Amino acid sequence: MRDSFLEIEGSNFLHFELLRYGGIIPPVAQDLHRQNIERVVAESFSKANLTPNDIDAIAVTNRPGLSSSLTVGVRYAKHLSRTYSKPFIPIHHMEAHALTARINNNIPFPFVCLLASGGHCILTLVKNVREFYNLGETIDDAPGEVFDKIARRLKLRLLPEYEWINGGLAIERAASKATDANQFEFPLPLAKFRDCRFSFTGFKNNANRAISFSERKHNVAPDEVIPDHENFCGGLLRAFTKHICHRTQRAMEFCESQDFINDETGKRLVFSGGVACNDFMYVALKEMCAQLGYQIWRPIKAHCSDNGLMIAWNGMERWLEDEDIYRNVVLDEMMLEPKCPLGTSLVSEVANANLKCKWVKISNLKLN
Ligand code: KG4
Ligand code: ZN
Fold first, then answer.
1. For residue 118, is pLDDT > 90?
2. How far is the CA of 87 from the centre of ligand 1 (A)?
3. Which of 120, 253, 278, 332 is least enclosed, having the fewest CB within 10 Å?
4. Ligand closest to the CA atom of residue 148
5. Does the pTM exceed 0.90?
6. Higher pLDDT pick, 73 / 31
7. 202-206, 273-277, 327-331: range with lowest mean pLDDT
């Protein structure tokens, strides 16, 4: 069934181009989408050895995202849907991230899901294919975005081993070589607030200050990297991970306090989004889950980052449930939702529960 699905995700190409060329303005991205979508779709059919007549339905991202990019995907998907009389399935980008781990694993509902990427950081309770509850999200930057900015400020690209990889992975690899990560301590944001919101801007500002300090101290030339960058990355990654583990533990305890999750439903955590490629974070979350009686999953790394398959998968999950399937799309009604929250908000309910958590000890974080 999965092979018989075609997916067109408007935002996919945009992300790729933004990463490679470091900040193309949206109209250019939209042009690139427009110029390439037909060829990409034709190549997908040819690789899959299928024709549009062989597929059951067309799933496409229509929310949230840059409307200029979403427009290209949605318009083309509608055109195909009309031309070949195929049902049309609009998809929420973050819901798709949350369901992706089910491609290769049998993960029953409900589960708690941590979504961390270059654009988002959200804790959500996933009750089924279409019922999502937002437990907390970032109030400022996303973790991947901050990793990328700090890696750039550190000038890690000057070192051949980091030249061609994304900022998050570069920081993870440098951190793995740290000999004394304690040299760099970062205060944990929102620690006083007993909720599940995240914040990453403070890390960025503190990191910039620490880098400038080290550059002055070691008299670092413009084309050099600070000598203690490995310990710096070690301290930074540890602080990010602690912040993420704390908010996730509270989300789990909140879901249990409301009986959304219990021994009968099963206790599960799914970690997804580009930042879920981070093995250090995954190992820390895994240890936390083991102590709290949760099973944990993440998609394979190629499916953690933005990809087309996750949209097709979400389309298939909806198709099987017969949810939100459009049999007759109206071509000039765009159905875009550039701003669209993920599910029903329980953010204030989490804050009102005022849960004081006893943080589990995680060996790679040396929490206390
Ligand atoms: O989900 P994604 O592919 O695109 C969106 O942002 O929607 O995520 C990309 C982000 C980048 O910011 C990148 O730095 C981060 O994922 N990332 C990582 C790792 N691999 C990719 N962050 C931390 N550790 C990694 N190994
Ligand atoms: Zn994404």
1. yes
2. 32
3. 332
4. 1
5. yes
6. 73
7. 327-331
Q: Cβ–Cβ contacts within 10 Å for residue 242, how many? A: 19
Please write down the HEC assignment for all residues of the chain: CHHHCEEECHHHHHHHHHHHHCCCCHHHHHHHHHHHHHHHHHHHHHHHCCCHHHCCCEEEEEECCCHHHHHHHHHHHHHHHHHCCCCEEEEEHHHHHHHHHHCCCCCCCCEEEEEECCCCEEEEEEEECCEEEEEEEECCCCHHHHHHHHHHHHCHHHCHHHCCCCHHHHHHHHHCCCCCHHHCCCCCCCCCCCCCCECCHHHHHHHHHHHHHHHHHCCCCCCCCCCCHHHHHHHHHHHHHHHHHHHHHHHHHHHHHCCCCCCCCCCEEEEECHHHHCHHHHHHHHHHHHHHCCEEECCCHHHHCCCCHHHHHHHHHHHHHCCCCECCCCCCCCCCCCCCCCCEECHHHHHHHCCCCCCCCCCCCCCC
pLDDT at 27 over 80: no
- Per-residue pLDDT for 23 more than 70? no
Taking 50 as the threshold, does the pLDDT of residue 12 lie above it? no
225 Cα to the center of ligand 2, angstroms: 30
pLDDT band at 364 (very low <50, low <70, confident <90, very high): confident
Mutate to test the pocket of ligand 1, among 117, 145, 162, 272 (most ligand atoms within 8 A of CB): 117
Percentage above 90 pLDDT, the chain: 79
Query: Cα of 359 to ligand 2 centre, how many Å?
Result: 29
